């Protein structure tokens, strides 16, 4: 979770708690009506948090899926490059082996 998102969630929770406290202190309504308002405020804050959570989840999923694609592409490129390098090394070793065979053949005469 990013620092910004954590701060946003903390601000929402703090605002909901302060709003509920102020609502209770200055409520001109009966206690039962005040409790209903607090429950509604709580439900609104809960919906906001759920919305933020879903947005954050989607953002994280998107970033990880694109990172996975980037990683897979890099991995394929690396394997391809290694394959070409391996072929170059094998070709070099084959030429050196041919040279050594020629030298060995001259020495055996």
UniProtKB/TrEMBL annotation:
PANTHER family from the UniProt entry = GENERAL STRESS PROTEIN
Q: Which organism is it from?
A: Flavobacterium hiemivividum
List all membrane-crossing ranges: 6-27
Which N-terminal residues, if any, form the signal peptide?
A: none
Taxonomically, the superkingdom here is: Bacteria
**One Pfam short name:** YtxH
Q: Which UniProt keywords apply?
A: Membrane, Transmembrane, Transmembrane helix
UniProt keyword annotation of Transmembrane present:
yes
Enumerate the InterPro entries for this protein: Desiccation-related_membrane, YtxH
Protein name per the record: YtxH domain-containing protein
- Lineage, broadest ranks: Bacteria, Pseudomonadati, Bacteroidota, Flavobacteriia, Flavobacteriales
């Amino acid at each position: 979770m990013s620092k910004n998102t954590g701060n946003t969630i903390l601000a929402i929770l703090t605002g909901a708690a302060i709003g509920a406290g102020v609502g209770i202190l200055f409520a001109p309504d009966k206690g039962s009506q005040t409790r209903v308002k607090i429950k509604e405020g709580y439900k609104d804050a809960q919906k906001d948090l759920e919305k933020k959570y879903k947005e954050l989840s989607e953002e994280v999923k998107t970033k990880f899926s694109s990172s996975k694609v980037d990683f897979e592409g890099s991995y394929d490129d690396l394997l391809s490059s290694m394959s070409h390098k391996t072929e170059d090394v094998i070709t070099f070793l084959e030429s050196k082996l041919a040279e050594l065979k020629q030298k060995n053949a001259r020495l055996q005469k």
